Amino acid sequence: MSIADQVPTQSGFHAKSTGKEVLENIDLSGKTAIVTGGYSGLGLETVRALADKGVKVIVPVRSPEKAQAALAELAGDITTAPMDLADLASVRSFTDAMLDDLSALDLLINNAGIMACPEARVGPGWESQFGVNHMGHFALTTALMPLLTKAPGTRVVALSSTGHKISDILWDDVQYSDTAYDKWQAYGQAKTANALFANGLSRRLKPSGGLAFSVHPGGIFTPLQRHLPQEEMIALGWLDESGEPSELAKQGFKTPEQGCSTTLWAATSPKLEGKAGVYCEDADVAAPTDMDSPTARFFGVNAHACDDESAERLWDMSEKLLQDA
């Protein structure tokens, strides 16, 4: 795929559509899903919507107590299992358990992530945003491939972000070994990696009929902002001087119920058949970024996040990083 494949489908949904609305006419009975980060923010609403449609949902959890409290209000077949994306041994333990317990996996929603956090190292010394947002999910997904290739029509959804516009992959220094750390650039790199990962994965799922997509859920106030001080969110225009959501945020930001809609659309919509690897937003395929638009920062997808050659380069790099870990 390339930027030329980024053609909206006229899905009939919009920026404020909810996950429940997106799934209204979709039959998901008998399906099994794994949703990372499924016990807060967007992930919790994704789990709620899937479970309400009869999906067996498995939520990997880093904090069992927090997960139990958050998931207690939800109805349906929802189970948890320990996993920390920053800990490769933990990811391996989780995937080994899934390979033992499941015969196939219909949906994998790589929802969890961290944003604009202070510099930190995870795993064998990976920069934390790249390590958690991309490499943790890369390790998870590749280990689950035997299950993903057994389910007819399996779908994998990787949560990217309009943050991908901030930065391409820093090919010469992905881990900020020599480059001065910039938390937003590092976030942008990780979100570009999420989009390129879906691109590369789509080719590897094609022989078994599976599909992979990346999504921008929209601007939403969730625990993802936990590392941002209030003054920074005011400077970004998300909050007003009193610390309340700004007029910009009220108009443009989504609720978590609305924010999960693009994830669920990508996971289920028949309109995406034959469109493997595309980047989606507002419950549709995103158009290429209009660089002349005053809203170019917020809408559309940049070409560097849709490049097959970059996706394969990242895949090869990621496999080597895992082998060396």
Describe the structure.
This protein is α/β, with parallel strands linked by helices. It folds into 2 domains: 3-219 and 256-324, 3-Layer(aba) Sandwich (Rossmann fold); 225-253, no CATH class. Helix content is 38%, strand content 12%. It is built from 12 helices and 10 strands. The protein has helices spanning 19-23, 41-52, 64-71, 88-101, 128-143, 145-148, 183-205, 230-235, 247-252, 256-259, 261-268, 308-324; strands at 32-35, 56-61, 78-82, 107-110, 121-122, 126-127, 155-159, 211-216, 279-281, 284-285. It has an 8-stranded mixed beta sheet, with helices on both faces. The protein has a two-stranded antiparallel sheet with strand order 5-6. Strand 2, helix 3 and strand 3 form a beta-alpha-beta unit. Helix 4 packs parallel to helix 5 (128-143) and helix 5 packs parallel to helix 7 (183-205). The longest helix is centred in the middle third of the chain and has 23 residues, at 183-205.
- CATH homologous superfamily heading of the largest domain: NAD(P)-binding Rossmann-like Domain
Order of helices and strands: HEHEHEHEEEHHEHEHHHHEEH
Give the helix/strand class. alpha/beta
CATH architecture of the largest domain: 3-Layer(aba) Sandwich
- Tell me how many strands there are: 10
Fill in the CATH topology of the largest domain: Rossmann fold
CATH class of the largest domain: Alpha Beta
Strand composition percent: 5-15%
- Main beta sheet strand tally, sense and closure: 8 strands, mixed
Low-confidence stretches: none
Strand order of the largest sheet: 3-2-1-4-7-8-9-10
Q: How many helices does DSSP assign?
A: 12
Mean pLDDT: 92
